[in-house]
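Team,

Forwarding the record for the chain on the shared tracking sheet. I've put the sequence and predicted structure together so nobody has to dig through attachments.
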Amino acid sequence: MNFDPSLDVRVTTDPLGFQFGPGVFGPLPEYRSLDSIRPSLRDPLCGGPDPVYAIAMDVGKREHREELRARMLLFGLVTYAAGRLGDEPVRSQGHVHRLARHSGWSPPELYEIWTGCAVVYMQEFAADDPGRCFAVTAGSGDVVVVPPGWAHATISADAKEPLTFGAWCDRDYGFVYDQVRAHGGLAWYALLGPDGQLEWHPNPRYATTALCLGPARTYRELGLETGKPIYAQFEANPSAVQWVSEPVLVEKEWQGFVPCYEGKPE
């Protein structure tokens, strides 16, 4: 990797997964098969890589293990296979985070792209009216924040290259898929055009709404430092990302939250 995440982790592609260096803990990866994500795809019968992606939840430096548990913080890693899912790019399932029992909030999430190019798609609600919708483009070293309660998915914007990212999550994490699956996916589908570029198409099962496309931005209002890996920010100041597991600490910032530098609506 050209990007240094401040963790001694090697990403593997055959098989998909991670190797952890001395002093770093992490589990064996969980795999998401193609069959498991079919309910959220535009074409549930499509072909594609299998497994689609690998996830390792609860990764960190050994000396931080107890601190992470005490703060209800979890650092996770995800790596995608290269390729495509029919006419869609490789992506995660759309979901909402379940309410965390210790906070009563559907937690936010802080992503950091390690390799590849990502689009983090998010919408305010998983209901028939999805509210505001954003597609945030991010490259290596960029960060993206998904606010509390929003439905979202992470998309690989380059079918030729694997995508890998890290994320700060609430330790009491869980995914709710029901509403997204009932709508056959999220409110906008990213499809791969003839030139390999993403094209956005509305999902007719939702009320019509605009999609705002924009690049990743900085989040100074959340206390994040530009250009510093998000694990290193925790290491230097363990309270720096405490708002991930305690969203109420920055409650006012979630009102009207805009996750990207605003670009043109689709």
